[in-house]
Design a protein that fits this description.
Elements: E1 14-17, E2 25-28, H1 33-52, H2 54-79, H3 84-105, H4 107-135, H5 137-159, H6 178-209, H7 212-220, H8 225-267, H9 272-282, H10 288-305, H11 308-333, H12 342-356, H13 358-375, H14 382-388
Antiparallel strand pairs: 1-2
Length: 390
């Protein structure tokens, strides 16, 4: 609702040129206490909606991200006079087939690696317990004495006659029912397959539509030529930023995967190719993926070699690769125009991770890029874009 000044006329938004970049047009929107309060309420309502409707928004965002990643290939094939519906279908089927063949090729090694994790955790726990028992003999003696006293008290309580008027209650643990676990696993697998199917079809339809959705969005902004220009600029920057980010992530993941493969192979760790693939995939998760790879590799290396030094060597090699990738390769591949404030990105990724879990960690940075591109073109929201920028 527009604010009413003293003359009773509503304050209308105005357009102005960006002093830093004359090619950009800024939209000036009057801000008041009432509008700020409404903005806060709208933001809280938006966050609640995003969290409540995450099963709908997550596949939607994944479809948009995949369409941004694959659209250059489809556009190139279209220039070769190949219809978009054919090129998009062949491209998606080829990607799914390639992922399936790769997963099947390394399935045996992956199964052996996964099956070794429980044994690795048990061996590490026993080793730590043995070390702790050797260094804390007095504490262990006290704990053993306390356990014996507790056992004696329980036996005395069992032997004593029951108090009149008091009913003895015995708690039984629920029996293990394999049918319940199989049913829960089936539902989880069916949900995953359903979500993947939705993302696949959504990506296909977005690729086939081309710039139809873009033209409709520009048309909805209104009849003003300036408003259309702002929308086109924002959409162009969103496309460029996301495509550049995805390209950088793809190249850096390939580098991390190959380097992890070679490093673990040189150190003698089993299933090094599987570790390379896992490192490349988990590299897409900011901050957490590298820690997961380092911890799991150290655990498996401890079981394989039985030495704590080799476990530390595996973890150190993994962290060193991710450090070089994060501090040298990514800044070199990413231009200055697409770099964002690391602190703002870290806080934003945490927020999206709280909203959507692991999917929020994956989608947080592209969403922040889109928000920054929009805020840079609205004058009153430009401080937010400046905060997100580097």
């Amino acid at each position: 609702m527009d604010e009413q000044p003293n003359d009773g006329k509503p304050v209308q938004p105005s357009l102005a040129a960006d002093p830093e970049d004359p090619t950009h047009v800024l939209l000036r929107v009057p801000v008041s206490v009432r509008s700020m309060a409404l903005m806060v309420i709208a933001t809280l309502a938006l966050l609640a909606t995003l969290r409540w409707a995450s099963p709908f928004f997550i596949p939607l965002m994944l479809g948009f991200i995949f369409s941004y990643a694959l659209s250059p290939v489809v556009n190139w094939l279209q220039r070769l006079h190949i219809p978009r519906w054919i090129s998009a279908g062949v491209l998606i089927i080829g990607i799914i087939g390639g992922v399936g063949v790769t997963a099947y090729s390394f399935s045996d090694d992956a199964n052996q690696l996964i099956e070794s994790l429980p044994d690795a955790a048990k061996k590490l726990r026993d080793s730590l317990h043995t070390r702790g028992a050797g260094t804390h003999t007095s504490l262990g003696t006290v704990q053993k004495a306390a356990a014996q006293l507790e056992q004696a008290a329980q036996e005395a309580g069992t032997a004593s006659p029951a108090v009149r008027g008091v009913q003895r209650v015995q708690i039984e643990k629920p029996r293990f029912d394999i049918q319940d676990h199989l049913w829960d696993g089936t539902l989880g697998l069916a949900s995953l397959v359903g979500q993947a199917t939705i993302v696949t079809f959504l990506t296909y339809f977005l690729l086939v539509s081309g710039d139809t959705f873009r033209r409709k969005l520009v048309k909805l902004t209104g009849p003003s030529l300036s408003s259309k220009k702002i929308t086109v600029q924002a959409l162009d920057e969103i496309t460029q930023q996301i495509q550049r980010y995805l390209l950088v992530q793809l190249l850096s993941s390939v580098v991390v995967g190959v380097a992890t493969w070679l490093a673990f192979w040189a150190l003698g760790l089993k299933h090094a190719p599987v570790w390379g693939i896992a490192a490349a995939i988990l590299n897409l998760i900011p901050y957490i993926g590298s820690a997961v790879v380092a911890g799991a590799a150290a655990l498996v290396a401890f079981v394989q070699f039985g030495e704590l030094n080799m476990a530390l060597a595996m973890a150190g090699a993994s962290l060193a690769i991710h450090t070089v990738q994060g501090s040298l390769i990514v800044p070199w591949l990413t231009s200055k125009t697409s770099r964002m404030n690391p602190l703002a990105v870290f806080i934003g990724v945490l927020a999206w991770g709280w909203l959507w879990g692991v999917w929020g960690l994956l989608l947080g940075i592209p969403i922040l890029m889109a928000v920054k591109a929009v805020c840079d073109r609205i004058e009153d929201l430009k401080p937010i874009g400046e905060l997100l920028g580097n």
